[in-house]
Automatic annotation (TrEMBL):
<dbReference type="Pfam" id="PF21377">
    <property type="entry name" value="MurD_N"/>
</dbReference>
<keyword id="KW-0067">ATP-binding</keyword>
<dbReference type="InterPro" id="IPR036615">
    <property type="entry name" value="Mur_ligase_C_dom_sf"/>
</dbReference>
<dbReference type="Pfam" id="PF02875">
    <property type="entry name" value="Mur_ligase_C"/>
</dbReference>
<feature type="domain" description="Mur ligase C-terminal">
    <location>
        <begin position="307"/>
        <end position="420"/>
    </location>
</feature>
<keyword id="KW-0961">Cell wall biogenesis/degradation</keyword>
<dbReference type="InterPro" id="IPR013221">
    <property type="entry name" value="Mur_ligase_cen"/>
</dbReference>
<keyword id="KW-0573">Peptidoglycan synthesis</keyword>
<keyword id="KW-0133">Cell shape</keyword>
<dbReference type="InterPro" id="IPR036565">
    <property type="entry name" value="Mur-like_cat_sf"/>
</dbReference>
<protein>
    <recommendedName>
        <fullName>UDP-N-acetylmuramoylalanine--D-glutamate ligase</fullName>
        <ecNumber>6.3.2.9</ecNumber>
    </recommendedName>
</protein>
<keyword id="KW-0547">Nucleotide-binding</keyword>
<dbReference type="InterPro" id="IPR005762">
    <property type="entry name" value="MurD"/>
</dbReference>
<comment type="similarity">
    <text>Belongs to the MurCDEF family.</text>
</comment>
<keyword id="KW-0131">Cell cycle</keyword>
<keyword id="KW-0132">Cell division</keyword>
<dbReference type="Pfam" id="PF08245">
    <property type="entry name" value="Mur_ligase_M"/>
</dbReference>
Length: 443
């Protein structure tokens, strides 16, 4: 019996444990932190051996294969020991993909992947039997075990791609690549780029890579490191022969001389970046032979993703917007770019070595006041102090929202778009976003 050791008892770990057990592995789950009660119950009910707040090295180093949670860096001594022993280390998507014949759409990128994956799934599910997994919802492994869909849309992070071996999506999407998580890649942008491109490493000419042709990082990397896949770029600025481009507010998509044209005027999602997300999702759908009318209707009734430019409430003619999912500067760039009114901007958190320079034009043009919400706001105060008349700092969401309420006027926006990770004051970006919404509703 092959021994499967799982490091990390979260959603992906427990899903993999269930699938592994079903497929005849001897499964052991080990978590250095505490395993949540809800996951403990699943493990106990399924008679899967587990431990938490500890790693039993002897047991772990006896594995045939190790599935490690994407949150555990390679630098951890235990992971080094596992690799030095020649034990295969895989990610959940690698493990689960071995047990499904389904057609896979894999979506990665620094920003926009959640929206693009959710939108793609929203279109495809009108016609196909399709699951949505990866970084969203129930784990891929659990869905392979319990649902057995014919198609999957997977939102995939660079950390999950770092541990693939044979994983091959039939259609891969790279939304964009901007510096993020560099602390995990020795502060070398090149390593992070290469990690994203692993999504195409096993693809052949029969598979497709859809990418943003306006993103110089992607275009340059493809020149130096060509892939086998059939390329379908999308662009807001250039005319594209095979792929998608924007002209006169219409998305034009051509695949093998088969063209469809989609008006963007009634798309629910606002902003240029969302036009790109819509292009990527529509290109996937066109490839999978979804009718133009179905794609268009789906684009027009898609509500968007929670914590991503989510319109919460209008109070005294001030619009409150929750963009808590903006955990890096580039995501906040898109948010500020799409603001069409004077904006009170709530920013801050755990800084990942941010360079805020690209935001300066928007701050000068659109931001009337800044509220710094972080355990340490010094860098923000120094960077933006001279740019706006009002800049204040706080450590509490309820206080940040109250200050915003006081300084905003009719016609303004109040935007939570932190550009930072949330772990200094919150459990995660969802917790941060929900606290914002709750504070707004309590005004």
């Amino acid at each position: 019996m092959k021994k499967l050791v799982i490091l990390g008892g979260g959603e992906s770990g427990v899903g993999t444990a269930l699938l592994g057990k079903e497929k005849g592995y001897d499964v052991f789950v080990s978590d250095k932190g505490k395993i949540k009660e809800i996951y403990k119950e699943v493990l106990i009910n399924n008679e899967i051996e587990w431990e938490d707040e500890n790693h039993s090295e002897e047991k772990i180093l006896n594995a045939d294969v190790v599935m490690k949670s994407p949150g555990i860096p390679d630098k951890v001594p235990l992971v080094k020991q596992i690799r030095d022993k020649g034990i295969l280390v895989v990610s959940e998507i690698e493990f689960a993909s071995k047990f499904t014949q389904a057609s896979i759409v894999g979506i990665t990128g620094s920003n926009g992947k959640t929206t693009t994956a959710s939108l793609t799934h929203h279109i495809l599910k009108q016609v196909l039997n399709v699951g949505l997994a990866g970084n969203i919802g129930d784990s891929f492994a659990k869905q392979v075990l319990e649902e057995g869909y014919d198609n999957y849309v997977l939102e995939i992070s660079s950390f999950q791609l770092d541990d693939i071996v044979d994983f091959k999506p039939h259609i891969a999407v790279i939304t964009n690549i901007t510096p993020d998580h560099l602390d995990r890649y020795d502060y070398q942008f090149e390593k992070y780029i290469a990690s994203k491109f692993r999504i195409a490493m096993n693809q052949t000419k029969a598979d497709y890579l859809i990418y943003d042709a306006d993103d110089e990082v992607i275009v340059e990397h493809l020149k130096k490191h060509p892939v086998q896949s059939t390329l379908l770029p999308f662009s807001l600025t250039k005319q594209i022969e095979n792929g998608a481009y924007l002209k006169d507010d219409n998305i034009n998509i051509t695949i093998n001389n088969n063209q469809i044209i989609m008006p963007t005027t009634n798309i629910k999602l606002e902003g240029k970046h969302n036009t790109k997300n819509a292009m990527a999702a529509s290109t996937v759908s066109h490839l999978l032979k979804i009718r133009k009318q179905t794609i268009r209707e789906s684009l027009e009734n898609f509500q968007g993703v929670e914590h991503r430019l989510e319109h919460v409430l209008k109070i005294n003619k001030v619009q409150y917007i929750n963009d808590s999912k903006a955990t890096n500067v580039n995501a906040t760039y898109y948010a500020l770019e799409s603001m069409d009114a004077p904006t009170v901007w709530i920013v801050g958190g755990e800084d990942k070595g941010n360079n805020y320079e690209e935001l300066f034009p928007f701050v000068n043009e659109k931001v009337k006041a800044i509220i710094c919400l972080g355990a340490d706001n010094e860098k923000l105060m120094q960077t933006f102090g001279g740019m706006v008349d009002v800049i204040v700092e706080t450590q509490f969401m309820s206080e940040a929202v109250k200050i915003a309420y006081k300084i905003s006027e009719a016609g303004d926006n109040v935007l939570l778009s932190p550009a930072c990770a949330s772990f200094d004051l919150f459990q995660n970006y969802e917790d941060r976003g929900r606290q914002f919404k709750s504070a707004v509703r309590n005004l």
